[in-house]
Amino acid sequence: MNRLERMRQKMHEEGIDAYVVLRPENGRYLSGFTGGEATLYVTAEKAILLTDFRYIEQAKGEAPEFEIVKTGQDHFEALAEIGQQAQRVGFEGDFVTFLNYEKLIKGFPQAELLSLPDLVSYLRAVKDQTEIEKLRQAVKIADDAFASVIKTIEIGQTEVEIALDLEYTMRRAGASGGSFDFIVASGVRSALPHGSASSKKIQLGEFLTMDFGAIYEGYCSDITRTVFLGEPEEKHQEVYQVVLAAQRAGIAAVAPGRTGKEVDAVARKIIVDAGYGEYFGHGLGHSVGLAIHEGPNLNMREERVLEPGMVITVEPGIYIPDWGGVRIEDIVLVTENGCEVLTQAPKEFISFE
Ligand code: GLY
Ligand code: MN
Ligand code: MN
Fold first, then answer.
1. Residues with CB under 6 A from ligand 1
2. Low-confidence ranges of the chain (pLDDT < 50)
3. Cα-to-centroid distance, 340 and ligand 1 (Å)
4. For ligand 2, a single-atom ion, which residues have Cβ within 5 Å?
5. How far is the CA of 318 from the centre of ligand 3 (A)?
6. Which parts of 125-194 fold into alpha helices (H)?
7. Distance 292 CA to ligand 1 centre (A)
């Protein structure tokens, strides 16, 4: 089954006769259109892509399964004309703004509107071969950038300079951009799980956490490495080894048939047993694809079972306020028997002057 057929089957299972797609990555996944500003309208018979003058030719080339309809900047009037027969209309309730929701109500006065935010992302979770190849390349670009930038890091550089070097190196290697706002956090800032790169200069005696990734042909990678600057104390080594052990155990637990909750528990137990449980306050991982964060997740609530073809991060961390923190993050591909680790950058404790 192709993507549109799987979408229609899913819509049938959910009991809806039409679905409106506004989220760009969902639109791209179903139609192939990379231009961003399009609305899709899918029913059992119709597959329509609404876009404006700027994108018509591109849409015709990229979305051959869709009927391309030209609209003004506001797609909702055209939607209302097209969707007069629909009775139960699904939409992305986590993406539609209040103003657009009001327009949907006005456009489909006859229909019941149902927020089904995960419908397309559910389909996106299992990647096909072409997607896996793009993800492999996105991961490789980030791995190579780490190998290259780590050689140039110098005491006294700012976190922003390191983030820029990573981005520049990845763009030179074919990335269309960074996959999110990079985290480069040193010293006590490494205890901030999402500490964006700042003007702070890196110094001896500190952890340096770098969390970054590339977008390659629309697909996102995500890697974190933490290195030590200068001579570590025993506690630096200990915390690092606990995170590494948890990360390795998490990877070993990834397999089809396991839930995200079960995998999270395996890694979390190692950190809790070592006495650092209160300092690991986020989930173990998330899927990646056309979006940097997508489902399913590895966390304490995730009930969805892993399947071959899912691509997911494993990223435990320990963050001790006013001291520092460590996170190690790889991307893995769920296989028939377990998983393949796509990230190749070394993750043994590295310390350097
Ligand atoms: N870049 C944030 C994360 O690793 O999920
Ligand atoms: Mn990350
Ligand atoms: Mn991540």
1. 180, 211, 222, 286, 315, 329
2. none
3. 20
4. 211, 222, 224, 329
5. 15
6. 129-150, 159-172
7. 8
Region label for 295, one of left (φ > 0), alpha (ψ between -120 and 50) or beta (otherwise): beta
Query: How are strands ordered across the β-sheet holding 311-314?
Result: 294-298, 285-287, 311-314, 330-334, 339-341
Going by C-beta distance under 8 Å and a sequence separation of 6 or more, which residues neighbour residue 130?
Answer: none
Q: How far apart are CA 321 and CA 73, in angstroms?
A: 48
What is the rounded CA–CA span in Å between residue 264 and residue 141?
A: 27
Ligand 1 atom closest to 224 (CA): 4
Q: Which of 331, 340, 336, 313 is nearest to 256 (CA)?
A: 336
Sign of CA dihedral 254, 260, 263, 268: positive
Strand partners, 250: none
Q: Whose CA is nearest to atom 3 of ligand 1?
A: 222
Residues 6+ apart with CB under 8 A from 224: 183, 209, 210, 211, 315, 317, 327, 328, 329
What's the 123 CA to ligand 3 centre distance in angstroms?
Answer: 20
Cβ–Cβ < 8 Å for 288, 115: no
For ligand 3, the distance from its centroid to the CA atom of residue 130, given in whole angstroms, is 22
Cis peptide before 321 (omega within 30 of 0): no
- Rounded Cα–Cα distance for residues 195 and 226 (Å): 13
DSSP conformational letter for 207: E
**Which domains does the chain carry?**
3-124 (3.40.350.10), 129-352 (3.90.230.10)
Q: What is the pLDDT of residue 84?
A: 85
* Residues linked to residue 228 through DSSP beta bridges, in sequence order: 207, 351
pLDDT value of position 277:
98
Q: Which of 220, 222, 328 to mutate to test the pocket of ligand 1 (most atoms within 8 A of CB)?
A: 222
Q: Which ligand is nearest to the CA of 180?
A: 1
Which residues lie closer than 8 Å to 249 by C-beta, 6 or more apart?
266, 267, 270
CA distance 132 to 116: 26
